[in-house]
Amino acid sequence: MQRHIRTRLVTATAAVLVAAGTITAGVSTAEPEHTKTTATRSAKPTKAQIAALFDGWNAALQTGDPDKVADRYAKDAVLLPTLSAEIRTDRAGIVDYFVGFLAKKPVGVKVRTVINVLDENSAIDTGLYEFHLTDPVTGAKSTAEARYTYEYEKRGGKWLIVNHHSSLLPTES
User: Fold this and answer.
1) Pairing of strands 107-119, 73-80
2) Is this model's pTM higher than 0.85 or not?
3) Which of 18, 38, 80, 108 sits between 20 and 30 A of 89, alpha carbons compared?
4) pLDDT tens sequence across 12-69
5) Which residues, 6+ apart, have CB-to-CB distance to 160 below 8 Å?
């Protein structure tokens, strides 16, 4: 009988210890945001990291594949493109724009950029860039000078363009 009581006591003690450990683990994972260390918080990206997103987009242009370029945009992205008056609000529209644009073999070069990192999951890159273009029929070279704004969001661990506005620079008056 004493052995039976001892077994119950050991089982009860083990159950209490497991419960206490579970509660302690729950409390430690519910640490308030202000007490978390930098290592436990998502860090804001650097301006250089955001600037590199344009380089990735520009490299996608160099593939000549409109789907690879469109992959850099969120599903709900809005594109106000440089050489079209049509606002693109879905993947099909974005791909359609890049079919024609990529035929001109564009190479983008930033002239001036201003980056604003809003938080660990969003940033804006705005400024001036130019595209060196080649006419697909004549082979004639030209340069389109434009202003741009890229709004980026980190979604599912991947930085995507959610809003891209690009317009030709107005002529000086």
Assistant:
1) unpaired
2) no
3) 108
4) 444 444 444 433 444 434 444 454 454 445 799 999 999 999 999 999 999 999 999 9
5) 72, 73, 74, 77, 152, 153, 154
